[in-house]
Design brief:
Length: 288
């Protein structure tokens, strides 16, 4: 009989450094909407497995490091958001172990190929980050007083790119946030004319940050993303979003900040592309 009760679990240790795991909350919210829309009973818990349901676990890496692995029922799904596509997983005991015990969902097709090189107990499933109506929850403001907003950690490499985003005018207001979530983050997003997505600079992390950017797209915000060599971008997004090299980031930001009509048209087009990724299809394609 097909599973009709789902529990979405976020494992998050209770220390400030792990607030970063709140980055999963929009994906969790989209899936909960999708399951409910399809007639499932779908709950959400933090740090707690519900053994009366099939559990989909987010933040599974710290949960295993904290010793929860034996708490997971055999039918548990681990939803992976780490980046593994640039190197083999073979020889990493934790990865090999979970592949032999649990169903893996992954947001990256490159990661999926790496999981499947381990001959897992179940083929890894490409659960691409997708749209649900409840993601569009940031009300537009009449006044957008932040020209450029970057949300994420800042490394020396990212700092160089951020500086280049000032554009030829060098007068754009740039705001950066790190480890800020919920209403406070949303208020900043509402005030921003333009969101930027910047590469980490680490060649091992070469998967486009769709988890972060998808929330901007769902709320009709214009996004400029740094294009780096070997960056893995899903085809529908590659053709729609603005990807530019570091040296061209300033000009791309100029063009959108200084042309409100073009910026709105671009943001609306990107919203429509992302909206075509229906989270219900991700669920149906696995469970049906």
């Amino acid at each position: 009989m097909r599973t009709r009760k789902i529990n979405l679990v976020l494992f998050k240790p209770d220390t400030p450094r792990f607030n970063i795991l709140d980055c999963h909350l929009e994906v969790i919210a989209s899936l909960q909407w999708g399951f409910n829309a399809l007639g499932y009973e779908c709950s959400f818990t933090t740090n707690a497995i519900n053994k009366s349901c099939r559990n989909i676990v987010f933040g599974w890496v710290p949960s295993i490091k904290c010793g929860y692995i034996d708490e997971f029922p055999n039918d548990t799904i681990l939803y992976n958001f780490e980046q593994y596509s640039s190197a083999s997983m073979k020889g990493f005991p934790v990865l090999e172990m979970v592949a032999q015990r649990f169903q893996i969902w992954d947001y990256s097709l490159g990661n999926v190929h790496r999981w499947n090189e381990l001959n897992p107990i179940f083929p890894a499933y490409y659960a691409k980050v997708s749209f649900a109506p409840n993601l569009a929850n940031i009300a537009p403001l009449g006044l957008e007083d932040i020209d450029i907003l970057y949300i994420g950690s800042i490394s020396p490499s990212r700092a160089e790119t951020l500086i280049s985003c000032g554009g030829t005018s060098s007068r754009h207001a740039l705001v950066t946030l790190s480890n800020v979530w919920g209403k406070q983050r949303n208020d900043f997003i509402a005030r921003a004319k333009l969101l930027i997505n910047v590469s980490s600079g680490n060649p091992l992390f070469n998967v486009f940050e769709i988890v972060r950017v998808s929330y901007y797209l769902a709320n009709r915000k214009a996004v400029v993303s740094e294009l780096t060599p070997q960056l893995e971008i899903e085809e529908d997004l590659r053709d729609a979003l603005c990807f530019v090299s570091r040296e061209n980031m300033g000009a791309a930001c100029d063009e959108l900040i200084l042309n409100p009509e073009k910026r709105k048209e671009y943001a609306d087009e990107c919203f429509e592309v992302f909206r075509r990724r229906d989270v219900r299809d991700v669920i149906r394609n696995f469970f049906d």
